Amino acid sequence: MGGITESPVEDYLYSILPARDPVLTEIEAEAAKRDIPIVGPVVGRVLYQLAQLGGAKTVFEMGSAIGYSTIWWARAVGEDGKVIYTDSDAKNA
Ligand SMILES: C[S@@+](CC[C@H](N)C(=O)[O-])C[C@H]1O[C@@H](n2cnc3c(N)ncnc32)[C@H](O)[C@@H]1O
To answer: How far is CA 46 from CA 34, 35, 51, 52, 55, in A?
Structure first.
């Protein structure tokens, strides 16, 4: 086990994930290639659901890296919502 969850739990969660669109899968591949830690599709979906359940319309994200989690937040708050994102690394910003 390398992560927070047991491998069988992680495998199960990944096996039931709906397909992601090309934007997300491209960023996932880019993050893997550049060794950038991102939340990934399971946690991304949890963030999305938390924002939706709470009816969030504004999100402040500290540490957006290359914008993967930011996209999940943006989709959750919708067209009339707002996501303020930031990263201390100029390369990411
Ligand atoms: C784990 S990565 C973020 C991944 C991103 N949230 C995602 O899942 O797509 C953490 C990021 O936080 C940034 N960071 C670290 N300290 C920070 C700070 N004080 N303010 C803003 N960003 C910071 C780092 O540059 C790094 O890109």
So the answer is: 24, 22, 9, 10, 14
